[in-house]
Known about the structure:
Order of helices and strands: HEHEHEHEEHEEHEHHEEHHHHHEE
Number of domains: 2
Number of strands: 12
Helix content: 40-55%
Largest sheet: 7 strands, mixed
Distance between the termini: 41 Å
Amino acid sequence: MYETVIYFLGIMGLLAGVMLVWRIPYCLDTGSDKVIHESVSIIIPARNEAATLPVILGSIRSQTNFTGEVIVIDDHSTDETSAIARSFGAVVISSSPLPDGWMGKTWACFQGAEHASGEVLVFLDADTFIHPGGLQRMLAAFNREPGVVSVAPFHVTKKFHEQFSAIFNIIIVSSVNAFSIFSSHRRPTGLFGPCLIVSRKDYIRIGGHESVKGRILEHLFMAEKFKDHGIEMACYGGKGVLSYRMYPDGIRQVIKGWGKAFVSGARQTKRFTTLLISVWFAGIVSVPVSLSLGAFLYDGFFTSVILLLYLCFVVQNYWMLKRIGSFYVSTAVLFPITVGFFLFVFINSLIRNSLGYGVQWKGRTLKV
C-alpha cells in the first residue's frame, strides 16, 4: 500500500510541475517604431541600496536612445544611496516619514509616482538590472498589451548560498498562474513585484499604491485591484531582458528576505494553483525520503522505481530552473536540500508571524 501511494505522489507531482511552468514567454520583439521614451518614468524605491544602484542605474544609462526620466526615492537610507543616484543623473526624492498603515516600499513608490511626469510608469526594484536593449523590449511588450505588464526577473546567482533560492523562484513564477498549462501569460492571477509597467491613467484608476499601502506583497494585491477595474494584465519572463541578484550577502539575508514574503504570498495564491503547488511539493518531498528508506526497508524493484522518479524530478527541476535563473546543475540534482531549506524558512516565518515577532528587514519589523 505504501509503495502505491509513493508511486502515485511521484507521478502526480511530476505532472503538476509540468502544468505549473508549462510555457514562459519572453519580451523578444523590439517594436522600436512604437516606443516613445520621452513619456516614460522609471521609478526605483531604494533603502540603503548603495551597492545595487550603480548596477541598475548603469544598465538604464546604457539603454539605446532612452530619454525618459529616472526617479530614485531615498527611503531614509543611512548609506550613500542619494549621492550615488545623483551621480548617475537620477532625480532623487527624499522620502517623507512613513505614515501609519503604510509599508516602506508602497510609500516610496507612491511618492515616486506623484513626482513622475511620464504617461508610462515603470516600477523597478533596486536589485534588478536591464540587459542591453531590454528596456526597448519591455516597453514594446507593454505597447502590444491592452493593460499592465509585469516581468519576472531572471535570477542571477554567483555564490553557493544563492542556490538556496531555487525552490522559492519556482514557486514565485508558478504562483501567479501566468505560465501554467491551464492559463496564459495574459490571464495571470497576480503580478511580479520587481517590475511593473503601467499607464498613469490605469495607475490612478486603481488608486495607485495607496490602495495596497499596508501590504508586504503589494503586487499580488494590486493585481486584484486591476482585475476589479477591468484592466487586463500580462506577465513575461525576464531572461535576456531583466535580471536581478537577490540576497548576495549571505545565508541569513536569504532567510530574512524570503521569510518576509512567503507566508503572506501563500495566503494570496489562488486555490487551484495552491493545489498544484502542493501536489508538486508532495512529490519532491516523498520521493527522496522514500529513496533514502528504500534500500533498508523495501525490495529492489521499489527502490529502482523511486530512483527513476527521483531522476525525473532532477530533470524537471533543471528544466524549470534554467528558464528562470542561472542555477547550477548540481542544484537540480540535490533538490532535496533546497526543498528542506524552503520548509525551514517557511515554517520559521509562519511561527514568527503567529507569535507576533515578524521579520526584521532593513531596520524595520515587517508583520503579515
